[in-house]
Automatic annotation (TrEMBL):
Post-translational modification: Carboxylation allows a single lysine to coordinate two zinc ions.
Active-site residues per Swiss-Prot or TrEMBL entry: 286 (proton acceptor)
One MF annotation (Gene Ontology) recorded for this entry: metal ion binding
Binding site for Zn(2+) 1: 62, 64, 286
InterPro entries: Amidohydro-rel (IPR006680), Metal-dep_hydrolase_composite (IPR011059), Metal_Hydrolase (IPR032466), Metallo-dep_Hydrolases_sf (IPR050378), Pept_M38_dipep (IPR010229)
Protein name (record): Isoaspartyl dipeptidase
Organism of origin: Thermohalobacter berrensis
Length: 391
């Protein structure tokens, strides 16, 4: 059945004004000021978007889809994510990653979970590896993983400046990035290296060194958790102003914010005020990963679980609380990750792109309807499609 979204104000993410959008199968077929489909042509499901803002489906490019954590022993391993944990947050595309635990969470587990979520209705990709170097792969080689396995588009998350890292050297990270880069070149993928940043005062030293002393471009890396403390955030401004990408984590706790974590909405505003390109900033949720709390000696004292739903909440805060224009704010979860990770059919509302679309109530900016690959997953706030094991 064809779907016709009528009378919505469309942000592609650039503002297009009031437009109608015709969805044909899993693609955006046609966009125009007014579309009328003859009733005898084919069955058409009309979605009235009057009073709604229409934006691209959200991309969450850092999600622990098969669970994460474990910093407090086996009982603190977080469970696998469920479909509606994702779709109720307006997310239609996820990139799955491993984290601290690359032993009981495996690459084959990650890849299988990604394929399962895609069977349930959303788009998925994964990164090979985990915190530690040498990284965990499927084929035994980073470059081969990226070239030969369709869903693997890069490497990560690799831990730097963190007491849980494998203490990699500049040479270690350089060789890893070189493999990822060549793998991406040969397969038409991004080959991005996702870097987990910890609290160490070494901060981005290794990445600055690589950029200054090797042929690997700064665009090969995307350091995440860059809002975790004030000094790392300030370092991130310098890094982004020379062309680097920076990613802010939306899942947080009141304690983390009280201790100096920079709220994502404020981080976005301050980056823009400091002259950072709006195209070099992304938000990710760290969904289903653990948010572990450690004392000053590095001892575990508790954790919470990241939520994918925090992704759009942070963007909404940027619009409502920080007066950032809608078309700028939504880039950090739509076109920017699509461009960085070379997801060429994602992140925009354009003809022939994937039909991943979110309708927002114009007055409240709350999520109303979520469409993934042409299928309505959430309709006026009501979940229409649940995961296989969801009640």
């Amino acid at each position: 059945m064809l779907k016709l979204i009528k009378n919505g104000e469309v942000y592609s993410p650039d503002y297009l004004g009031k437009k109608d959008i015709l969805i044909t199968g899993n693609k955006i077929g046609y966009i125009a000021d007014n579309i009328e489909v003859p009733k005898d042509f084919a069955p058409v499901e009309v979605i009235d978007a009057e009073g709604k803002i229409v934006v691209p489906g959200f991309i969450d490019s850092h999600v622990h889809i098969c669970g994460g954590g474990g910093e407090g022993s086996f009982k603190t391993r977080t469970p696998e994510i469920q479909l509606t944990d994702i779709t109720t947050g307006g997310v239609t595309t996820v990139i799955g990653v491993l984290g601290t635990d690359g032993t009981t969470r495996t690459m084959t587990n990650l890849l299988a979970k990604a394929r399962g979520l895609e069977e349930e209705g959303i788009s998925t990709y994964v990164l090979t590896g985990s915190y530690q170097i040498p990284v965990r792969t499927i084929t035994g080689n980073i470059q081969d993983d990226i070239i030969l396995i369709d869903k693997i588009i890069g490497v990560g998350e690799i831990a730097l400046s963190d007491h849980r890292s494998s203490e990699p050297t500049v040479e270690d990270v350089s060789k890893l990035a070189a493999q990822a880069r060549v793998g991406g070149i040969l397969s038409g993928k991004a080959g991005i290296v996702n870097i987990h940043m910890g609290d160490s005062k070494k901060m981005l030293d290794i990445l600055f060194n690589i950029v200054e002393n090797t042929e690997i471009p700064i665009s090969q890396f995307i350091p995440t958790h860059m809002n975790r403390n004030p000094y790392l955030f300030e370092e991130g401004i310098k890094y982004a102003k020379i062309g680097g990408y920076v990613d802010f984590t939306t899942s947080t706790t009141e304690k983390f914010l009280e201790e100096g974590e920079v709220k994502c909405s404020k981080a976005l505003k301050r980056m823009l005020q400091n002259g950072v390109s709006k195209e070099n900033i992304t938000f990710t949720s760290d969904g289903q990963g653990s948010l572990p709390d450690f004392d000053e000696n590095g001892n575990y004292i508790g954790l919470q679980v990241g939520k994918v739903t925090s992704l759009y909440e942070a963007v909404r805060d940027a619009i409502v609380e920080e007066d950032i224009p809608v078309e700028t704010a939504i880039r950090v979860i739509t076109s920017n990750p699509a461009n960085i990770y070379k997801l060429n059919t994602k992140g925009y509302i354009r003809e022939n792109m994937d039909a991943d679309i979110v309708l927002l109530n114009k007055d409240s900016l709350e999520i109303d309807t979520v469409i993934a690959m042409g299928k309505v997953m959430v309709d006026r706030g009501e979940v229409k499609v649940k995961g296989t094991f969801e009640k």
